[in-house]
NF2, moesin-ezrin-radixin like (MERLIN) tumor suppressor b (Acanthochromis polyacanthus), 633 residues
Amino acid sequence: VLPTIASRVACFSSRLKKKQPKTFKVKVITMDAEMEFSCEVKWKGKDLFDLVCRTVGLRETWFFGLRYTVKDTYAWLKQEKRVLDQEVPKDSPITFHFLAKFFPEKVEEELVQEITQHLFFLQVKKQILDEEIFCSPEASVLLASYAVQAKYGDYDPNFHKPGFLAQDELLPKRVLMQYQMTADMWEEKITAWYAEHRGIARDEAEMEYLKIAQDLEMYGVSYFAITQNKRDTDLLLGVDAQGLHIYSPNSKLSPNKSFPWSGIRNISYSEKEFTIKPLDKKKDVFKFYSSQLRVNKLILQLCIGNHDLFMRRRKVDSIEVQQMKAQAKEEKARKKMERQILAREKQMREEAERAKEEMERRLFQLQDEARLANEALLRSEETADLLAEKAQIAEEEAKLLAHKAAEAEQERQRLEVTAMKTKEEKRLMEQKMREAEQLAVKLVEQSERRLKEADHLKQDLTEAKDAERRAKQKLLEITKTTYPLIAAYSTPPAPPEAADLGYESASTRLDFKDSDMKRLSMEIERERLEYMEKSKHLQDQLKELKSEIESLKLEEQQQQAGLYGLQSEARGYVQEPVYIPHSNVCVMTADDLLFLITAIIIIIKINNLFNLVNTKACRLKLHQLSEPDRADI
């Protein structure tokens, strides 16, 4: 029965082993990639670590490790133990971070491979941006400029326009909040430094970044909270490539006490107690306490690794490291040569492109010049045709102007002749006007003389009327006194017929006087009518003379204007009419001449009237006088 049971148990156990999976999945996150692997259950940490290093192409494996998270802290995967036997997460896949576990003292001497430099560059850059490493604003801007050089290459203002860094995280948030500056202002500062890094390759820019970063106080330091006794937690332990440092909780930059690796004899821990024994036995042993046993294990692991690297740096490099350095040196020389060749080719290409652009510009310029020359030729041909047409038109205009000039010359000669005639007529008219003025003066003098004579005649007429009246009275008196006496003494009495006859003779004498007066009135009326006809005829003549003078003046002005217009047209241009003032000759207007003639007519009328009155008065006076007086007269 017992063998049967044993055989059954063995069979069941073999079945269980067959059902268990032989592999598990692992996810490894580097600084620039994520990788997944299928690992065997029996794999140790070294197997997985070597697989990741081969995949990445890393040979400087002693700086790196696989880190995983355990509760509220982290731990490094141990290489001598199986992966699943360690306190790794039970997730699937299991996540590890491939990071630098130890940092070199001098990056330029210890980091050989380019991939090693790149991974360190990415990790240190992330620690600075996450403020795990304190960095001043000035150093942050300088480091950002090298990071931009490593990412974008040489600065090209034609390609790198303002705002090309807007999507990149280059400065810590603490630096951005410390100054009241906009993103454009920060970009301007970074670009100013970035422009000075021209010609630096990507690996060189990353190395310059690490050389600046390794001088920072918190570079490569792992901090742990510790206490000097079991009750207080007021200290920090820092582990780096130089040794162990004790810090105050509020100051991670300057340590209160340091233990360099060269001065440490032994490091050990017992549960939560950690002991540092100096090499100098006279110095006191430094003890401190951590919160967890796992933290003490991690501190010890970091101390052992950093101490081994410290001692390794003081020894001669191994053959592998020497080969790596030689290969790296050859690789750097080759890359430097390639960069020089590339720079020379780039320079030649740029020169060729500039020459090409210059030739294209010159070609475009020549094409433009040819186009402009063709256009100028076409314009010159058009201008030549136009000038030919203008010459023909000018020739025709010259002929027309010559013809007009001949006509103008003829018209000028005609106008000169007309002007000479006009001057002669004007001279005659002026002579007539002067004669009329002289006549008017004479008439005025004669009218004055006639007025004086008229006054004398009026006086004589008044005296004649008084003498006539007195004569009539005297005649009546004589007739009344003498006629009866004569009839009585000298003649016999007359018969009635004789008396009637005497009466009739007196009546006849009186009737004779009345007929003379009527005849005189008729003569005066007839002479008045003749005078009016003559005056009307004279007025008509004066109007004709006035109109003739006006027409002569108008014709003279038109002739002068026409003469100057023809002369101007003969010269080839039109000139405004020019007013030519008359000579200083006393020229009377038509109104003045009409007034003068009217005055002459009035004077003539007055003269005739006085002559008529004088004649009638003389006649009347002769009729009224007696025969002896009339005979005496």
Q: What stands out?
A: The CA atoms of residues 57 and 74 lie 26 Å apart. The first strand starts at residue 23 and ends at 29.
